[in-house]
Amino acid sequence: MSADQLYESFFGLTERPFSLVPDPEYMYWTPEHKRAYSILEFGIMSRAPITLITGEVGAGKTTLLQKLLSDINDDVTIGLISNAQGGRGELIQWILNALDINIDPAAAYVQSFRVLQDFLLSEYAAGWRVVLIIDEAQNLSAEGLEELRMLTNVNSNKDVLIQLILVGQPELRDMVNAPNMKQLAQRVSANFHLPRMSSETVPQYISHRLRTAGGTGNEFTREACDHIFKETGGVPRLVNQLCDLALLYAWSAEENTIENRTIQAIIDDNVFMNRAANTEEDKS
């Protein structure tokens, strides 16, 4: 029996409200998330060569992308690459696969690039824009980032034929701002860094997800929410992990409200594995 089958009916929920799977339906629009999404939309509408979105692990970047994909206009051909790695030649294969362009994997780099260029030109001629999203872009090498920059040189009548959206952890911004990446940085027309949630936002976030799953939104006391913020540092993914455990603990104790002692019991039992790292981060 899974955790959701254990506590869902007990709390009157239709599903687990704190799943770790990105789900646009559960998106809580903090002011920062609204601004990040606006930057994504602006980047596409303004035909920005490169749009850059960064944030901590679990800050909600991938959920924003899922929302963007569901809202994208019909005149846009979009490709999504998640966690691409490799050097020159391998990245071009990732791009071709993301755009559903069939080519022999053993083809030479020049041939692969020509096929991609021909595809971009044909899409442009048909009135379509091509947007390539690279999630977890901090895993790319400097060579890979430079290869992406070269893609923005492919143009027709001064129009950019492919727009790039780079999404990743904070170190991605450092990589783009490195002295040897000045040409890449100059192509970034829109960028935003998504911070962690504040102590005031966390209770609202928790209540929102509970209501979305059919709950009242009052299952967690304010003291419990404050403790959750302390243990997670406001990172949405970690908040979800701790809240999921809290619902499980409260169900096992037949308690309809999650109080501070429930959160402390989880910490004392050492089942919330991210606590030590977060505590150190909060002190720094």
Automatic annotation (TrEMBL):
<dbReference type="GO" id="GO:0016887">
    <property type="term" value="F:ATP hydrolysis activity"/>
</dbReference>
<feature type="domain" description="AAA+ ATPase">
    <location>
        <begin position="47"/>
        <end position="198"/>
    </location>
</feature>
<dbReference type="InterPro" id="IPR027417">
    <property type="entry name" value="P-loop_NTPase"/>
</dbReference>
<dbReference type="InterPro" id="IPR049945">
    <property type="entry name" value="AAA_22"/>
</dbReference>
<dbReference type="InterPro" id="IPR003593">
    <property type="entry name" value="AAA+_ATPase"/>
</dbReference>
<dbReference type="Pfam" id="PF13401">
    <property type="entry name" value="AAA_22"/>
</dbReference>
<protein>
    <submittedName>
        <fullName>ATPase</fullName>
    </submittedName>
</protein>
<dbReference type="InterPro" id="IPR052026">
    <property type="entry name" value="ExeA_AAA_ATPase_DNA-bind"/>
</dbReference>
